[in-house]
Amino acid sequence: MLRVIIADDHPIVRIGQRVVIEAGGKCKVVGEADGPDELLRLLSTVACDVLVTDFAMPGGQQADGYGLLGLLRRQYPALPVILVTMFANVATLRASFAHGARAIVAKSASARELPIAINAVIKGETFASECLRVQLVSAGPGDQLQQPQLSSKEREVVRMLASGMTVSQIAARVNRSISTISKQKSTAMSRLCISTDVDLFAYARSCGMVP
C-alpha cells in the first residue's frame, strides 16, 4: 500500500483528492496539510511514499511555489513530488520540473490524471497533464525542463508590475521610455509563454519576486 500525503489550502480539494487516490485500493492517504508550514511538520513525523501538493498555498512562514519545491528537494531528495496547480502554463511547467517536481497535474484534470501521475512517479518516470503537454508542443523545441531565463531588466519590470506599478510608473522610476518598458514586458511574457497579466503576476509571486 503506497502512503500518500496531500497538501492543499482548500479542504474540499483535499477531500476530492483523497477519494480519487484511495479509489483504486493501492494507495492510502496518511496525512493532510493545509499549507507549507503544516506540510513540513507532517513530513518530519509521518513517513510517505508520494507527496501530492498544491503549487500556491499562501500564508505561514514558509514560502510556497518554487521556494517550497526547492526546500522539499533539499530535505527529501528521494520523495516523488506531484504538483497540482491551476497555473497551467509552459513557464510553470518547465520551472517546476527544474525545481524538483516529478509530475505536474492541472487542477482541471486532477480527478482522472492524479492516479496516472502517482503510478508514473513510483516507476521513476515524470508526468505532465495532457493540456500542459499540448502547450509544450505549441511552445516549440528546447530543453523542456529548463526554467525560462529573463534578462535582469525584464525581471525588474515583471517584479514592479507584480508589485502593482503601471508601465508608466515603471518608466518614470527607472528612467526609460514607456515603449521600452512595454517591449520588455512583452518579451518577458513571450519567453515565459504567458499570455495574460494574471498569469504573469502569479508567476512573479511563485518565483518570490513579490511577497
From TrEMBL:
Name this protein carries in UniProt: Response regulator transcription factor
Keywords: DNA-binding, Phosphoprotein
InterPro entries: CheY-like_superfamily (IPR011006), NreC/VraR/RcsB-like_REC (IPR058245), Sig_transdc_resp-reg_C-effctor (IPR016032), Sig_transdc_resp-reg_receiver (IPR001789), Tscrpt_reg_LuxR_C (IPR000792), WalR-like (IPR039420), WH-like_DNA-bd_sf (IPR036388)
Organism per entry: Pseudomonas extremaustralis
PANTHER family linked: TRANSCRIPTIONAL REGULATORY PROTEIN RCSB, TWO-COMPONENT RESPONSE REGULATOR
Domain of life the protein comes from: Bacteria
A family per Pfam: GerE
GO terms of biological process kind: phosphorelay signal transduction system; regulation of DNA-templated transcription
Transmembrane intervals: none
Segments forming domain Response regulatory: 3-122
An example Gene Ontology molecular-function term: DNA binding
Residue ranges occupied by any HTH luxR-type domain in the UniProt entry: 143-208
Keyword Hydrolase recorded: no
Modified residues (4-aspartylphosphate): D54
